[in-house]
């Protein structure tokens, strides 16, 4: 891990970090070609890319419903217990996020409010191939179902060995999570072609309103490219963790916490922020001991060697500001006064407070969503939530009294912006109330100075209090 030592009074600057933050142009261009082909050719293009990238030829993309129905049969009871516990706690957390439509009425009878409507269909992308991520299924499907999404559609790459053996083409753990999480349909398609199919629809795969879930760089590029034609949660980069630790922390425990992110991906970023250089050295020594026994040692070492950073701050205030500059996906406050520091943290996707709050608890069973903003985007982005699967419509219902109260201010602002018809549409309603229906008859208006009607010289008192 590289070390950045901040002098007294010095704060971490974002330029000191090594984040790239931009998808390579060649990957973006390749994703665009795939998207264009899927839009124009539909299933034929999807099938061609499945053969080219996954090495499988599927007669049908959709997993038969009977395989979903039988997903829990024959699985390890301990795994099922863990899965169901995680699902229950994730569901409980997200149910607390759910918002209802609301309305309020002013004294003049005008009704205002918000109508909350779930998306009709949402697509969740689950990485697959040779890996299995049941936790990702739960974290994406459950908030969608809590939001009221009727049709949750999962896409995931098929496993070549299973296809060749004629068995279910996705991991039994992933399939079980889909059943427990309430997924309605599963399509064994991955990569940018799956994102394109969800965004635009094909003969076999339906179009959805929003696409969520992590994937490789091609999936991330495809999501960015289709954004605007379809909703997306975020463009996720490599996983990252930041541990803010003082000398009360156990070096080996902090080392394991850093390794828990490093083992995801050689590009995973790990940050240790502390005011104690001797403690940081002990953490590095502990990493050397622990990684020697890791079954993912090569990945872990590559991440920590190339993407790992230790920041030695002069004091805790500078350390906290370093955390806010990093704006990490996951933040652990591994300090004696962890709860007391919480208020000073402005930028983090998920905050794990205290020595007992290890980040893997959040990955699996704690309840809050583990789909989090990466690459510093926690400075302005949110975790995946129920809100991602609903849309909100403002509701505005004026009474005649309400119209008279607000019309003069509307007309004055429209006059300031030079928008004549904006003012006129309000003014004609005002005219009906002040002069009767005949005053807005077409023939009557033909003989009227409509500019004077649209932009009357109302005094400030009238503008403020209404007509």
UniProtKB/TrEMBL annotation:
Coiled coil: none annotated. Zn(2+) binds at residues 261, 264, 363, 422. NAD(+) binds at residues 125, 193, 216. The keyword NAD applies. GO terms for cellular component: cytosol. It is an enzyme of class 1 (oxidoreductase). InterPro entries: Ald_DH/histidinol_DH, Histidinol_DH_CS, Histidinol_DH_monofunct, Hstdl_DH. GO terms for biological process: L-histidine biosynthetic process. CDD domains: Histidinol_dh. Binds 1 zinc ion per subunit. Pathway: Amino-acid biosynthesis; L-histidine biosynthesis; L-histidine from 5-phospho-alpha-D-ribose 1-diphosphate: step 9/9. The active site is at 329 (proton acceptor), 330 (proton acceptor). The keyword Glycosyltransferase does not apply. Substrate binds at residues 239, 261, 264, 330, 363, 417, 422. Catalyzes the sequential NAD-dependent oxidations of L-histidinol to L-histidinaldehyde and then to L-histidine. This is Histidinol dehydrogenase. The lineage of its organism: Bacteria, Bacillati, Actinomycetota, Coriobacteriia, Coriobacteriales.
């Amino acid at each position: 891990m590289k070390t950045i030592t901040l002098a007294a009074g010095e704060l971490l600057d974002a330029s000191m970090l090594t984040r790239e933050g931009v998808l390579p142009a060649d990957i973006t261009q390749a994703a665009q070609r795939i998207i264009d082909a899927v839009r124009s050719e539909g299933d034929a293009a999807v099938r061609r890319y499945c053969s080219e990238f996954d090495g499988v030829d599927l007669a049908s993309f959709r997993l038969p419903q009977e395989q979903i129905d039988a997903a829990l049969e024959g699985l390890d009871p301990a795994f099922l217990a863990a899965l169901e516990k995680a699902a229950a706690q994730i569901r409980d957390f997200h149910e607390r996020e759910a918002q209802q439509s609301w309305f309020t009425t002013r004294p003049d009878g005008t009704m205002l409010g918000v109508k909350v409507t779930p998306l009709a269909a949402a697509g969740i992308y689950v990485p697959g191939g040779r890996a299995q991520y049941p936790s990702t299924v739960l974290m994406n499907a459950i908030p969608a179902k809590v939001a009221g999404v009727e049709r949750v559609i999962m896409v995931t790459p098929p496993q070549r060995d299973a296809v060749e053996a004629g068995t279910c083409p996705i991991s039994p753990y992933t399939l079980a999570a889909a059943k427990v999480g309430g997924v309605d349909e599963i399509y064994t398609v991955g990569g940018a072609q799956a994102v394109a199919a969800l965004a635009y629809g094909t003969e076999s795969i339906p179009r959805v309103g929003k696409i969520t879930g992590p994937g490789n760089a091609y999936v991330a590029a495809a999501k960015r490219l289709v954004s605007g034609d379809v909703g997306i949660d975020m463009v996720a980069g490599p996983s990252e963790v930041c541990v803010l630790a003082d000398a009360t922390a156990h070096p080996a425990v902090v080392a394991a916490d850093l390794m828990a992110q490093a083992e995801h991906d050689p590009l995973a970023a790990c940050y240790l922020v502390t005011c104690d250089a001797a403690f940081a050295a002990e953490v590095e020594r502990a990493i050397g001991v622990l990684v020697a026994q890791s079954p993912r040692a090569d990945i872990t070492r590559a991440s920590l060697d190339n993407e790992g950073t230790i920041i030695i701050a002069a004091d805790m205030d500078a350390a906290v500001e370093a955390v806010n500059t990093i704006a990490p996906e996951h933040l652990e406050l591994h300090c004696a006064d962890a709860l007391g520091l919480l208020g000073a943290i402005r930028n983090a996707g998920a905050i794990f407070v205290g020595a007992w709050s290890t980040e893997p608890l959040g990955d699996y069973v704690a309840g809050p969503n583990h789909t989090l903003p990466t690459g510093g985007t926690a400075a302005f982005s949110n975790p995946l939530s129920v809100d991602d699967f609903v849309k909100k419509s403002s509701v505005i219902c004026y009474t005649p009294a309400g119209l008279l109260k607000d019309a003069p201010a509307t007309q004055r602002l429209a006059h300031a912006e030079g928008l004549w018809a904006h003012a006129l549409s309000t003014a004609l309603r005002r005219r009906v109330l002040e002069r009767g229906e005949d005053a807005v008859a077409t023939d009557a208006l033909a003989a009227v100075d409509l500019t004077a009607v649209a932009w009357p010289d109302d005094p400030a008192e009238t503008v403020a209090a209404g007509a």
